[in-house]
What does this fold into?
Amino acid sequence: MLEGIKRLFGSQPADATKGWEGVAPWAESKQYTFRGVQSEGFVIDGRLGATPWRLEWGPSHRPYIQGQELRIRSELGLSAELQVVVMNRHLQEAMEKSIFEQYVEGVQTRIDNQTPPEMRWLVMYPKLAGHEMSPLRERFVALASIKPWLLQWLEGPLTQALAAVRIEPATPMVLMIGRGRLMLRTALADAEVESLQMWLRLFEVAMREARRVAMDTGETISPSTHPSLWSTSALPGDERKK
It folds into this structure.
């Protein structure tokens, strides 16, 4: 399956050092912590109130993103049973095509643990109907293990923030919750400050709204921090599949 997705999104990797010279000064001005990871990318640590987040830019950890990937994540301490995905329609269609090719026309009979969770959930859970997605229905799909939670999350500010995002339709973008963690992934060839600011604004709205829903539903929130998906000096191959 992973090879099938790679073929669908095949492209040449971008120059990893291109276009991010102004990132460190911007991070300093916001009192974020910045560090480079060799010449392949960087990590920025910040907070929304008391809740930490981590932004990483470097070689992709997902087969459906070629070249450089932007990841932003935060440990929100949400229920381990909660699994949520919002993704752009182009990516959803490409993933479903790959699933069909691999598991219907191909020889594989089950989705294994090497398949990214967002793809497994795309198969496991029904998508929201168009009227439940308005005004996002033309550009995004959404699904969850707990539908009422997802509907509450998309009420108000998060839907507005997603609608305001301007990217090419073919650019893969995933906003997801799993194992208590909020994660955003997207392809980003050049880590320009303006692009980082746009994605971070969206992510912080998603953080606020996730905490709001958790409080409204009486969830116990126990935020925690975990080590980066990268080491400080390298990008181990076995880490890239997380």
